[in-house]
Amino acid sequence: MGDAQNDTGVPPWLEDSGPGDAPASDWTASLLEDLTEPQRRAVLHTEGPLLVLAAAGSGKTRVITRRIAYLVGCGVPAWSILAVTFTNKAAGEMRERVERLLGGAGSRSGRGLTVTTFHSLCARLLRRYAEQAGLRPDFSIYDSGDQSALVKKVIESLQLSTANFPARSVLSAISAAKNDLLDAKGYAARAIDFSGRTIAKIYAGYERALRGANAADFDDLLLLTARMLRENEAVAGELRQRWQYLLIDEYQDTNKAQFVIASGLAGKGRPDTRGPNICVVGDPDQAIYGWRGADITNILEFEQAYPGCEVITLGENFRSTAPILAVADKLIRHNARRKHKDLFTKRSGGQPVEAVLCRDERHEAKLVVDWLRSLRDASGTGDGVRAGHAWKDMAVFYRTNALSRVMEEAFREAGVPYTIARGTAFYEREEVKSATAYLRVIANQADDVSLGRIINTPARGISDATVARLESRAAETGVPMMSALRELADSPALAAPMGLTPRAAASVQRFVGLMNSWTGAGSFMGEQITGSLADLVDRAIKESGLEDMYRKQARQSQSETDAERLDNLAELVSSARQFEMEYDPAADAALDGSADGTPPLLAMLRAYLESIALVSDADTIDPALGSVTLMTLHAAKGLEFAGVAIVGLEEGLLPHARALSSGNPDDMEEERRLCFVGVTRAMRRLLLTSAKYRTIRGASERTTPSRFLAEMPQEHLAVRDLAGDDTQWDPGPEFEPDVAVARKKSEVAGMFPPGCLVRHPQFGVGTVKSLTGGAQARALIDFRDVGVKTLILEYARLTKLR
DNA sequence: CAACGACGCTCGAAA
DNA sequence: AGCGTCGTTG
Prior knowledge:
Number of helices: 36
Strand content: 5-15%
Helix content: 40-55%
Distance between the termini: 84 Å
Number of strands: 21
Largest sheet: 8 strands, mixed
């Protein structure tokens, strides 16, 4: 490509001894110790494209880290190596492991080595080359909530109904298009029916709104970077010049945008070599992000994309016991569209995999907790069996987040320490979301979505009607909301023609004054506010009145959650303080080029907000906490635990109902791979459970055990049926409902009048507070033990006592 | 203008 | 069971 440096041949640092003739120091030799032959070949392959097909548990991370260390050992500067992983957590661990390996090399250093995720990398590149990408460096990153707020506004502005075009499905269409590098114009060209053409219009409006708000959604991070690398040769050349060695992990889960980014960064390599130094690592059997646009052909056709590339297969499993591996192997063989691959281990022995059929989800949860406890209590007997496992070496996986709740209750009840891996959970709390919205508007005044969140939170006399008027004013003049607010604050005479009362105008003026006190009129006064990030966060929370608002609420309601909210706000301040301590402005500037006179505090604020936006679920896991990890099967990718329980192996759950109803065999195969990923996380013990009855949307439903259980080798499964037969579970005469199928409120009104005493098989005795609903009757019941619940009478097994 | 209750709809995985 | 919307009330 147009990279002049590439034509000059060997880069300067390789002139004396290229990696071709490896330095035979003790240290580099030690990097090859205890590796298998294929692992060693992967480490030693330094120049030209390389595809490593790494089966689950085949020592992939070990190979990657050794290979990076080896490159550095060969004289490749660490700053010219870029490694892309799937989560920040994985990136951090990889960097640490490489540094530990390099530490053994004395003076050698990993300084400047970049290990990051696709999304973080792209965010940084877009800040550095904002202008070339069509953004400004202070752009906001919009999460799903922000996206849906924005797209709803667009749908309304187009006079469409969110009933016909639900934000959710419109956004998933837009996301799919973006992952496929299709812009609104391209989408419109392909639209064939009314719905498609309308979505194309919404897409176009949504893009306009995003750019107007100086914001990028998650998909934009990839899309805009891919487009920039493709269209801007100067930028692409500069980056290729810097990163001569590229390594991408979990390559099977990359989408088209990521493919374009990877190949854009790799370039074509110098003509006299075997091609660019791009190494991709992955396993087609663990491809589980098809719904996010991941294209498995990226890895399957890597050889065609990079002719002459070396392919190394790592097949031997070092992680799991023989029975666990046998279960995984037999299961995944049911996928028809698959490159045949043998999973094997030299280990023998190991406990059989356990499968238990439970009565319901509560029973299941309790059983899982008991099982984990037994793993921990297992005593190290004399026969070489190791002693009990620590909580941190155990995990529970589930298909959907909804299942975490029952598990959580069971853990709490049993007093077993647990952590739910949900990285964004904290930042999704209402109070935290409001606080960060203030910060986001401070960093990016065009951020209309964040502004909309805080303009009247806490209540400051700016009503919805006022906001609507300001919004239409902004839309008319084509400026961000904040500009309209400023305009009004500067010329109060505008209030009357806009239809605003003087009181409303005064409220707006006060709000603008508040914002200005943090930012200066429109331009961030970082130069003056040289204080700390934590102080800024603290000030925003206090001076906005957010803290007072929750303090008042906490006093009034005396409720736990309101006190919690105050704690969370304090927690946010300390997270900012933590970030501040670990923040390295030099490293930040090196990657995003923000040393261009950006006020230091603003640069740090941007980096902080970015880190918040890009946390992943797996990032939450901290072995030091010493707790059992609860997470989705998707989040479990790349991890391993001594003991694993997978719950909810039922038709409709795993495989998920959507895969059942789509009729697309690819969907079913992805579900199977998901199950496979879960199974192969287990090192020593594995428990698979299903519940015969599961509460779905408030109603208990009969389930069928997952087909995946039947597909596993029964000789390696120890199956227990604890669900009993139907007569045991069916509600006996005592629980016979007074109303079998009562659909309408009018039909039950006389039967359960407010104040009457009832018994529920699960919740116990309670008093009916009120009856609601029309076509679907519901009762609000205050139960003595569990508090107030709303029950759908059609399903509730209620006995009237008095 | 804010707060709350009632009602009806939908319901997957995530950076 | 949770969420958004609508209508009523404070």
